[in-house]
């Protein structure tokens, strides 16, 4: 099998390319820019080449930050890849509404393929009773910290919001940034707002809008959640210029001990692989908020990525073969081993492959959670997501009032 890696190919060149012929597939993914992602996709595609030498892949890799724009542009231009990495929720829903996705129902019903996935995960890529992509991984968001640093400084992981903000003051006084944050690509700060909304009002808020619930609302809790996040920025608990820092830059501040804590997804385990000697990654749950109406055990967690097939591809049989291979138990176990991320395939997230940190999160936090609330920004339709990103960045820099941010976001969610 010839595996042509078009990592540097321009979108224009792809748009002018001839459609894939029988035995040929274009495959786009977002596993670039981070070593654990690269290691995984290289392994998976190398193994696919051995198993299916009759199928030629034209591979285009991008970093997560630029991938969504690239895929949206390809879809809008009518030149989608045959098989591609996608996000669940509103991002996938927009392609479904445009008639661009191949429904996988019949394929999933064969040979037990559909039964191999966690039902709750498959539900996040199912729209109006049809499954249009297969979920790959499940990420949850927790606070990360360096156990060695905390032990050295005498700091204790907090369990309440009051304890968290008190610890932030203590770390700041010690010359350490309390919370690392690189919000250049807009999504990293969303975890702060969503967890506050979950603690104050409860899980399922955005899902209610997406599902067309006429009574859906952010409530006064939305304004309070935005205000609480704004207060953190006003107190200089985030790095200087955090809205212009990348997530990777924020990660380096954390790994090098310049920042005490980081609110991020379970992919942080893989991102911490290159930490300096002596770094000991630990985690704790987002603290409880006094007076909050939400279940204080709830965890922000959801399907982070999926693979879909274009309805335009003339080579659907090979496309299905590729997607089935990428979500096979053997490949998914390697995914867990290399990326230290929970996957959606049953039996693949083992303690041996996951390691103690990830396995602990899955068994201690997620299993005890009252609800798992999917990521707001991927659940929302794209237009609402853009509004969400814009108003949250504005709140953080002080240019948008929390009440205005809540009003604009709710209006965008109702409009969609």
From TrEMBL:
Pfam families listed in its UniProt record: SBP_bac_1 (PF01547)
GO BP terms in the entry: maltodextrin transmembrane transport; maltose transport
Signal peptide interval: 1-22
GO molecular function annotation: maltose binding
SUPFAM superfamilies in UniProt: Periplasmic binding protein-like II
InterPro entries assigned: SBP
Keywords: Periplasm, Signal, Transport
Top-rank lineage group of the source organism: Bacteria
A GO cellular component annotation in the UniProt record: ATP-binding cassette (ABC) transporter complex, substrate-binding subunit-containing
Similarity comment text for this entry: Belongs to the bacterial solute-binding protein 1 family.
Name of this protein: Multiple sugar-binding protein
Organism: Devosia equisanguinis
Phylogenetic classification of the source organism: Bacteria, Pseudomonadati, Pseudomonadota, Alphaproteobacteria, Hyphomicrobiales
């Amino acid at each position: 099998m010839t595996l042509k890696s078009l990592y540097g190919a321009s979108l224009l060149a792809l748009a002018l390319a001839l459609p894939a012929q029988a035995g040929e597939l274009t495959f786009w993914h977002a596993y670039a820019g981070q070593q654990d992602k690269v290691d995984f996709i290289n392994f998976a595609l190398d193994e696919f080449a051995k198993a299916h030498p009759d199928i030629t892949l034209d591979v285009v890799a991008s970093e997560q930050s630029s991938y969504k724009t690239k895929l949206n542009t390809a879809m809008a231009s009518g030149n989608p890849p045959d098989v591609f990495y996608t996000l669940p929720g509103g991002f996938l829903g927009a392609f479904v509404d445009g008639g661009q996705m191949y429904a996988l129902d019949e394929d999933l019903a064969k040979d037990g393929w559909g039964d191999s996935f966690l039902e709750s995960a498959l539900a996040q890529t199912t729209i109006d009773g049809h499954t249009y992509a297969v979920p790959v991984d499940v990420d949850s968001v927790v606070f990360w910290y360096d156990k060695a640093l905390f032990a050295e400084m005498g700091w204790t992981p907090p369990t309440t919001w009051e304890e968290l903000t008190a610890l932030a003051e203590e770390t700041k006084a010690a010359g350490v940034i309390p919370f690392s944050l690189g919000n250049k690509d807009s999504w990293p700060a969303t975890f702060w707002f969503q967890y506050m909304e979950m603690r104050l009002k409860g899980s399922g808020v955005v899902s209610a809008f997406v599902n067309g619930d006429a009574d859906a609302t952010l409530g006064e809790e939305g304004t309070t959640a935005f205000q609480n996040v704004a207060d953190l920025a006003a107190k200089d608990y985030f790095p200087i210029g955090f809205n212009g820092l990348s997530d990777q830059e924020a990660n380096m501040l954390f790994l090098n001990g310049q920042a005490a804590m980081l609110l991020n997804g379970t992919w942080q385990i893989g991102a911490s692989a290159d930490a300096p000697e002596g770094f000991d990654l630990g985690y704790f749950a987002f603290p409880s908020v006094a007076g909050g109406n939400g279940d204080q055990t709830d965890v922000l967690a959801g399907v982070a990525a999926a693979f879909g097939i274009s309805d335009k591809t003339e080579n659907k049989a090979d496309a299905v073969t590729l997607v089935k291979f990428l979500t096979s138990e053997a490949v998914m176990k390697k995914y867990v081993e290399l990326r230290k991320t929970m996957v959606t395939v049953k039996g693949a997230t083992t303690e041996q492959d996951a390691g103690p940190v990830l396995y602990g999160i899955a068994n201690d936090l997620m299993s005890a959670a009252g609800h798992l609330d999917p990521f707001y920004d991927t659940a929302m339709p794209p237009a609402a997501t853009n509004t969400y990103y814009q108003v949250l960045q504005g709140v953080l820099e002080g240019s948008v009032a929390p009440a205005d941010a809540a009003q604009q976001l709710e209006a965008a969610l109702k409009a969609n």
